[in-house]
Amino acid sequence: MKRHVLIFGLVGGLLIATLQYTQYRFVVIEHSVELYSALVAVLFSAFGIWLGLRITRRRETIVVREVLVPATGGGAAPGAAFVPDVATQQRLGVTARELEILALIASGLSNREMAAQLFVSENTVKTHCARVFGKLGEARRTQAVQRGKEMGLLP
Amino acid sequence: MKRHVLIFGLVGGLLIATLQYTQYRFVVIEHSVELYSALVAVLFSAFGIWLGLRITRRRETIVVREVLVPATGGGAAPGAAFVPDVATQQRLGVTARELEILALIASGLSNREMAAQLFVSENTVKTHCARVFGKLGEARRTQAVQRGKEMGLLP
DNA sequence: TGGAAAATCATCCGAAAGGGTGACGACAAG
DNA sequence: CTTGTCGTCACCCTTTCGGATGATTTTCCA
């Protein structure tokens, strides 16, 4: 990355120098700034395109297809029921109810559905959501679910 | 593509006009061409990078490589990169772009963030969302993610 | 080279989600 | 008895999401 910045600087400097030089040649010509501008624009657009391609080189996404031997079955709960990371949970101050809400969020329920399932009001669900979002440091339910999985709070 | 050329022309023309205007302001200042040049360089470099990213987001060449794994059933498959179930994907008619969107949804991004990351408009992201939701038979993003995981479209 | 598929973008509108705040009751601990 | 925590509920407001629909452009294949 530093190399690109360096190249950028070099090209810029070179161009400035070139302009300095050409300025003396065309100093008598009026309205030559537009010419310079166009030149610089085209040049640096090309450079930008090159740079954009360079720094975002298409990494070949090699997809490794797993052919599972029919054993435990990877996806769902493999035998033993999931055990949330109690240490992490207590460290974050996540209560049991909030974790329950988070799990329901992860299963894709809406606030209304959660409220119906837990026999509480939708507002309560929203409060729990807000609390657990705050404790996880996330703002959206999808993010919170992702975070919960990373931290061992969710299967 | 034509639109990009058009945008290029517009930006260029706008800049030329701006320079024309500012030239009268700084006409008394010597050596201001360097300033113009630097301005134009930075501006069009950014534009070029954007354009380069924009017009070259070609379909990533997916190389499917089948590998036998012992089916440990662990959570995050170590080592092996993930593996969308191509059969399921094609059966549902989920395009690569839509699957990409679904993966970003699963990682917790909002539509706006996805749009910024993919260099498309938020509306486009929403369209992709709606399509993939329809194909998965779900209505909410959390549900769609859950479904995608169950069906092997997501890790 | 023409058409199908896919991707892109847009607009309108309603629903859902989220932030902030305040409040009330239960319950355990001091 | 006071205090703190937790669960519960409510209100208002803004943001985000999702559905429906139409249009244009790009890509790809026959």
Order of helices and strands of chain A: HHEHHHHH
Q: What share of the residues of chain A does DSSP label as strand, in percent?
A: under 5%
End-to-end span of chain A in angstroms?
A: 38 Å
Query: What's the overall average pLDDT of chain A, rounded?
Result: 71
Alpha-beta classification of chain A: mainly alpha
Q: Please report the two chains with the greatest interface, counting residues with C-beta closer than 8 angstroms to the partner's C-beta.
A: A-B, 61 and 69 residues
What does the largest sheet of chain A look like? none
Number of DSSP helical runs of chain A: 7
Q: Low-confidence stretches of chain A at least 5 residues in length (pLDDT < 50)? A: 57-78
Tell me the overall shape of chain A: elongated
> Oligomeric state of the chains?
homodimer
Helical proportion of chain A, percent range: 55-70%
